[in-house]
Amino acid sequence: MENRVPAVRMSGITKTFGSVVANHDVSIEIQRGEILSLLGENGSGKTTLMNMLSGIYCPDSGQIEVDGKEVSIRSPKDALSLGIGMIHQHYKLVDVMNATQNIILGLKEDKYDLKAASGRVREICERYGFDLNPEQKVYDMTVSQKQTVEIVKVLYRKADILILDEPTAVLTPQETEKLFDVLRNMKKDNKAVIIITHKLNEVLEISDRVDILRAGEFIGSLKTSETTAQEMTDMMVGHAVALNIHRPEPKNPVPRIKVSGLTVRSEEGLLKLDDVSFTANSGEILGIAGISNSGQKELLEAISGLQPVESGDITYISPEGQATSLIGKDPLDIQRLGVALSFVPEDRLGMGLVGNMDMTDNMMLRTFRKGRGLFVDRGTPKGTAQKVKDRLEVVTPGLSTPVRRLSGGNVQKVLVGREIASAPSVLLTAYAVRGLDINSSYAIYDLMNQQKENGVAVIYVGEDLDVLLELADRILVLCGGKVSGILDGRKTNKYQVGSMMTTLGGGEAK
Amino acid sequence: MNEKKKGPIAHIVKRPDISLKEATAIRAGAIVLSILVCALVTFLLTGDDPLSVFRTIWEGSFASERRLWVLLQNVSILLIISLAMAPAFRMRFWNIGGEGQVMMGVLATASCMIMLGGKVPEPVLIVIEIVAAIAAGAIWAAIPAFFKSRWNTNETLFTLMMNYVATQLVAYFIIIWESPRGSGKIGIINQQTQAGWLPQIGEYKYLLTVVVAAALTVFLHIYMTKSKHGYELAVVGESERTARYIGIKVGRVFIRTMLLSGAICGIAGLLMVGSTDHTMTTTLAGGRGFTAVMVAWMAKFNPIGMIFTSFLLAFLGKGAGEVATQFGLNQSFSDILSSIIIFFLIGCEFFIQYRIVFRKEAK
Q1: Which of A350, A357, A368 sits opposite B228 (nearest CB)?
Q2: Residues of B with CB below 8 A from A354's CB?
Q3: Nearest CA to CA, how far is A357 from chain B (Å)?
Q4: B4:A343 CB<8 A
Q5: Does domain A251-340+424-438+451-510 have CATH number 3.40.50.300?
Q6: Cα separation values, A15 from A63, A210, A425, B13, B351, Å
Q7: Residues 2..41 of B with a Cβ closer than 8 Å to A: which?
Q8: pLDDT tens digits for range B281-340
């Protein structure tokens, strides 16, 4: 078995972007009939490595062999002709077309025969157990169905080496199960499957072998059956970390934010939040769960004044007991009222930070208006920046390095650090640990807990249910813009939350 | 392994940040190359000696004291207009209406001199002139900013169109005020009384312009790097969403910054009419509203850097003009030479960002 020719062998691959070394002398291989997990923290070079295999980038040096033959992959088309297909994190589908049309888009077949194509799509679906209607329009699809279209698209092009980039990031636990069944069927069909991930439980569940990358370097290859989550974490991070999240009991919680009957429409008039009511208490972490795009963003933006509200009310109750309505106030008014909302937006660089500015200038975003006079004071923010850098262990060449040059995790630390530095009484965070490595994630959880113990009302929108269940005191589940239920974080489980995310009230629990 | 497929012959790799020294070397190399190509083109088209072409470029600016002063005046006006472009461009507001904003300053100054010359005391006239020129430029620039902040109109097209309106307004008033009658142009305004002429420093006609340019450079440098306004407009330029998120009123910053840009353009117009030319023509701005975009861009919107880039472009422009005259060629030829030089200057920026890696020959 060991001397079979591998489906893919990448050896000595190096790729640099400017001064950033994304991959350094990485070598991996995968056999047919095998599922390989590519594990690593964010910024460890997993996606870059796979992008070179799928023809998006060209390696600076190193060799790629497919079935023992050295190849040069210059474009995704080259990759496909070698049977390599990649399913990216961001789907590239045409909304107004149906599944089949999207699948055959760009193929140069002899004639355009939609019926025959649909037939073939159906055949593929049956063979691997996909749940897909070839005639369904993409705009009607859930995220999971869109992913299915992307996978079938690659299979339709006869790919037998599949790469999936963080395929479960947007799926519910139930949908993840389904996807894994499909992957197992592919494995039986002698295809080679590579999944990029940083979720350990999934690695253990689905893959045969796991290759670990750290900071662009290949660390090691393990047989999944012979390893543990702890061992993989240690290899991924480079040193041992504890894996449970601390959750102190809330201390005398009192209502801080009251939301009642909140309804929000998007600019296109779509209902984003529908009659949402809840209370967030001081000294408590309120987790918000939901499939992506169920109204989480709109909810946080409405509270912080960035999103116009159609009806309903949001009331802020200050620590002194004074109630103020936040409706109709812009973000600056909300700040000036003494209502301190700290908001970590979903896309950190697009909205929370300025990529081309350094840490000091980014700290200043919150405080530059302070003081009279025409000139900005850079001294105080510089102190803040230094403090954030020390406390959160931000890895940066210096305070004057533009934050866009930092890795994703460090950018996030800068943002969260700044928000916390403003000493808020309500802390709103969306995906605060998105893309963070384990170490930084735990640093962030600690910070949330500190805020909670200081009597701050923390609202935490999260994607990882395991974390949400361990961190939050209460969990509000959103489903299609409505409140599906509010659960006690200590008494619920992943499947209850998961089913409430997909069905209002959680009808058919697994 | 003979049938082994080869990789692409060359591919482009992003550079790590390169030192100022290397970047300067690349830019200097580009200038040298561009001059060599200019010499070659001149030689091929005219058969003249390339060395004398270089000498002529030099002489265009430095042959006499008068030429040096003209060069300084050109640099200063170009620098002032470029400084006006900088804050808007830092804000990613693509203002290409510098030409029109300057022309409005020209029109305002000229109209004050013509309408009020001799009717109000000289100091009052000059104050009115200054205010009028600044206001005219500022309003002209603020109109597109207002529409952008209100209805999100495209500022590039809007400012461009405003140029034509301004130029035609100037053309219209030239006909109304033409002197002598029937000449279709305005001669030197108030030649006898010198009413409304800006004061001359000592015996140097052009010194005032140079001093104003220097003062504005310092002012803008401080404005952009140290002031709250400068910080706000940088944030808006980098990310409008971030700016909204922290409560900056983006529309207001657009209008405020364009008022400043327009005001500075107005000053350029004021200096041209009031201090050096004392007349008004439709070509007084002479495309410098556009050249200024390039000056600002090449200096990465850094006011101090613009001193060098405006000097460079003004010097090369003069040199190219001189080559055309000396060798008995027409104006188009000097345009060809300027364009070659600018092509190299802009093109070399690519090599500062990226380098090209050639495939190593396999053994």
Answers
A1: A368
A2: 234-235, 238-239, 242
A3: 9
A4: no
A5: yes
A6: 12, 22, 45, 10, 20
A7: 4-8, 11, 13-17
A8: 998 888 899 999 989 988 888 999 999 999 988 888 888 788 778 877 776 777 788 888
Phi, then psi, of B340 in degrees rounded to 5: -60, -45
- β-pairing, A284-289 vs A474-479, is parallel
Q: Do A60 and B357 touch (CB under 8 A)?
A: yes
One-letter amino acid for residue B28 of the chain: A
Give A380: exposed, middle or buried? Use CB within 10 Å, 0-12, 13-18, 19+.
Answer: middle
Query: What contacts B334, CB < 8 A, 6 or more positions away?
Result: B317, B320, B321, B323, B324
Give me the architecture of the B67-310 domain, per CATH.
Orthogonal Bundle (1.10)
Round to whole Å and give the CA distance between A164 and A168: 9
Arch. (CATH architecture) of A8-237: 3-Layer(aba) Sandwich (3.40)
Which phi and psi (to 5°) does residue B24 adopt? -65, -40
At a CB cut-off of 8 Å and minimum separation 6, what does A17 contact? B14
- Cβ atoms within 10 Å, residue B194: 16
Q: Rounded distance, CA A335 to CA A425, Å?
A: 11
Contacts of B89 in chain A (CB under 8 A): none
Are the C-beta atoms of residues A305 and A251 closer than 8 Å to each other? no
* Residue B326 or B8, more confident: B326
Q: Among B16, B232, B246, whose Cβ lies nearest the Cβ of A331? A: B246
- Dump pLDDT digits (tens) for A339-352: 666 666 656 666 67
Name the residue ranges covered by the structural domains of chain A. 8-237, 251-340+424-438+451-510, 344-422
A4 φ/ψ sector (left φ>0, alpha ψ -120 to 50, else beta): beta
ipTM of the complex: 0.75
Instruction: Give how far A503 is from chain B: nearest CA, Å.
Output: 33
Residues in chain A: 510
Q: What is the DSSP letter of A138?
A: G
Domain boundaries, chain B: 67-310
The answer to whether B17 contacts A18, with C-beta atoms less than 8 Å apart, is yes
Integer Cα distance of B116 and B127 in angstroms: 12
The answer to whether the Cβ–Cβ distance between A18 and B227 falls below 8 Å is: no
